[in-house]
Design brief:
About 35% of the residues lie in helices and about 20% in strands. It has an 8-stranded mixed beta sheet. Strand 11 and strand 12 form a beta hairpin. About 40% of the residues are buried. The longest helix has 15 residues. The chain has one domain: TIM Barrel (Alpha-Beta Barrel), CATH 3.20.20.70. Helix 6 runs parallel beside helix 7 and helix 7 packs parallel to helix 9. The chain is globular, with a radius of gyration of 19 Å. The chain has about 300 residues and is an alpha/beta fold. The C terminus is likely disordered.
Length: about 300
């Protein structure tokens, strides 16, 4: 168990890079689905909701340490699995404990968002829950079925639309390479379609990393999954970006898993981003060293 600013946190701690300076409040542990074959984040960490009195105690402990908190991230992978009746008291406590609080964020699945009415979502916004991180991974339902991800593409698309209607921003995550060599084109084509309907305010590309101990790693080891190499990961990035018709999106591809760090706004910086990717593919622009992918 990790002690975070004198507050107990059940490891591992998983958070988006953008939440590095946020107060990390653990309200659930693990993931209620925990079925994705590529993910090793919560293996061996049973899902449970922490007791409310424990969560409220954690909030007060951190407020005693740093009452000037401006941003909070709700952990673990499934904070939105709590319905509003259970989530609202936590959000109210955060607002009371941190007078300078501007924004609360959490991972969310499309089905969790779609299960709430617009009024329920607006209540969350009024309590400063203003950002959802959503792992689309791919716009292909076939590939999502392959990797056993429970939320459907349709649920995630509708979830982003519903969130934005309630004025909650969505940071959508695409996982490059998730279809392997055989389904790379399908991944590209269907992901373009999903993102163009979603019109996310924030969009990130991550690259698949084969994690030993996960089912997908075992598929790779047995020759049943053929991962793409660094050049093909850049090609997927290029082709997806080229097909996007996003009206107002902040794009980032600067995660540790990516070979070519990129950042810009769509559509304003689209040509520059495509040019940088083209240079990376041709070898004109230096790439980060090959990361371990089980290869």
């Amino acid at each position: 168990m990790l002690y975070y600013k004198n507050m107990p946190i059940i490891e591992p701690v998983i958070r988006p890079p953008a939440e590095a300076n946020s107060f990390l409040l653990q309200i659930t542990t693990g993931c209620s689905a925990n079925t994705c074959t590529f993910c090793g984040a919560y293996k061996g960490k049973p899902f449970k909701v922490k007791p409310l009195d424990e969560i409220l105690g954690d909030i007060q402990s951190y407020a005693n340490y740093n009452p000037k908190v401006r941003k909070v991230f709700l952990m673990d992978g499934d904070a939105l699995v709590l319905n509003n009746s259970k989530l609202i008291p936590i959000l109210e406590a955060l607002n009371q404990a941190f007078p300078r609080l501007t924004r609360i964020a959490a991972y969310a699945n499309g089905d969790q968002i779609c299960s709430r009415t617009n009024e329920e979502l607006k209540t969350l916004v009024s309590l400063k829950l203003k950002l959802f991180y959503i792992g689309l991974e791919t716009g292909s339902q076939e590939i999502l079925n392959d990797v056993h991800k429970k939320p459907t593409v349709a649920e995630m698309v509708q979830g982003v639309i519903a969130a934005q209607k309630a004025e909650i921003k969505s940071s959508v995550i695409v996982l490059l390479g998730i279809g392997g060599k055989e389904k790379s084109k399908l991944h590209i084509q269907e992901t373009i379609k999903a993102l163009n309907v979603m019109q996310p305010k924030l969009l990130s590309f991550l690259s698949l990393m084969l994690v030993p101990g996960t089912p997908l790693y075992e598929e790779y080891r047995k020759g049943r999954f053929n991962p793409i190499d660094s050049k093909d990961l850049l090609i997927e990035s290029y082709e997806i970006l080229k097909g996007l018709d996003c009206k107002q999106t902040i794009f980032r591809c600067n995660h540790a898993s990516n070979y070519l760090p990129l950042e810009g706004r769509l559509p304003a910086d689209k040509d520059r981003l495509l040019r940088d990717l083209s240079e990376g593919i041709s070898g004109k622009q230096g790439l980060k060293p090959e990361l371990f992918r089980g290869l």
